[in-house]
From TrEMBL:
InterPro entries: AKR, Aldo-Keto_reductase, NAD(P)_OxRdtase_dom_sf, NADP_OxRdtase_dom. This is Aldo/keto reductase. It holds the Pfam family Aldo_ket_red. Coiled coil: none annotated. PROSITE patterns: PROKAR_LIPOPROTEIN.
Length: 330
């Protein structure tokens, strides 16, 4: 069942660690986060994915506090490049910035080695060779094991890989977000690069739990996303309801069906759903325990896809930071 990333065998379902610090409403308490991470390792999760931006370092700090004594039990990935410091807001993948960021992340994570370190976004201001060169230096120094990129286009992935082989590409991939199928899916397969899917259950939308996004907390990121808007949500909810029925008929949960679909798209694909609830984390980890028939996966894909959903995956301000190929008139 295991799959390879950066030369390491891990469970195909990893744990996205953004939710404990940022983005989807009020984060859990520190104690609850520590319990969550330890329970994850107890269950068998061995791929934890975080970033310096998540809670401005809070996610990394929590991982360090929670499981530093269990460091050998998991593959650790983090990211850099997005700046959210007031007027400095933007993207910075300059060698100087990334080198300092690695040191800062190591300190917060309370470790001397990060297995995989991503450039979180493409920085058009910095030559690719310079950015990759800085990460190669960190690899040579033993501070990181490998590098990856997040939300980069196929062309830029190829350019970076030619400078020094990358281990992973992380991007959004789910039933309702298919941008990787415009090139990245094939590119990563061809170059033997792991494809790590974030938001594989569509930011929780297709789990059958959320019915009214207007009731989300004010600071919940989804309130600003077009697919959850008052205009688009009723249409998307109708799709979700049919999807929930399909999962129930198959004898698994909607989240498990969504994860099975993503993982089925290629043997180099990993998924990193995030959650703050132990029961959801358990459900996600066991998503592959009861494989469904291929026709069920096909029906799921025909029901929810880029053509059937309403609204773009990102609001305009975020869309402008994405290098990944996009659909025309999306």
């Amino acid at each position: 069942m295991k799959r390879t990333i950066a030369g390491t065998q891990v469970h195909p379902i990893g744990l996205g660690c953004m939710n404990v610090a940022w983005a989807y409403g009020s984060p859990p308490s520190e104690d609850d986060s520590i319990k969550l991470f330890n329970k994850a390792l107890d269950l068998g999760y061995n791929h934890l994915d975080t970033a310096n931006i998540y809670g401005k370092g809070k996610s990394e700090e929590l991982i360090g506090k929670a499981v530093k004594s269990r460091r050998k039990e998991f593959f650790l990935a983090s990211k850099t490049g997005i700046i959210v410091d007031g007027p400095k807001r933007g993207i910075d993948c300059s060698p100087k910035a990334m080198t300092q960021s690695i040191e800062d992340s190591l300190k917060r994570l309370q470790t001397d080695h990060i297995d995989l370190f991503y450039m979180h976004r493409f920085d058009p201001k910095v030559p690719i060779a310079e950015s990759v060169g800085a990460l190669k230096d960190a690899i040579d120094a033993g501070k990181i094991g490998a590098y990856g990129v997040s939300e980069w286009s196929s062309d830029h992935i190829r350019q970076a890989h030619a400078v020094y082989p990358m281990a992973a590409v992380q991007t959004e991939y789910s039933l309702w977000t298919r941008n990787v199928e415009l090139g990245i899916l094939d590119t990563t397969k061809e170059l033997d690069i792991a494809l790590v899917a974030f938001s594989p259950v569509a930011r929780g939308a297709i789990c059958g739990i959320m019915t009214d996004p207007s009731k989300l907390e004010e600071k919940d990121l989804r309130r600003s996303h077009p697919r959850f808007s008052e205009e688009n949500w009723p249409h998307n909810l109708a799709l979700v309801e049919k999807f929930v029925d399909l999962a129930q008929q198959a004898g698994i949960t909607p989240a498990q069906l969504a994860l099975q679909w993503v993982i089925s798209r290629g043997d180099h694909i990993h998924a990193i759903p995030g959650t703050t609830k132990i029961e959801h984390m358990e459900d996600n980890f066991h998503a592959l325990d009861r494989p469904v028939d291929a026709d069920v996966l096909q029906r799921a894909g025909e029901l929810i896809n880029q053509q059937t959903v309403s609204g773009h995956r990102y609001p305009e301000v975020m869309r402008n930071t994405i290098d990944t190929e996009d659909f025309v008139n999306a």
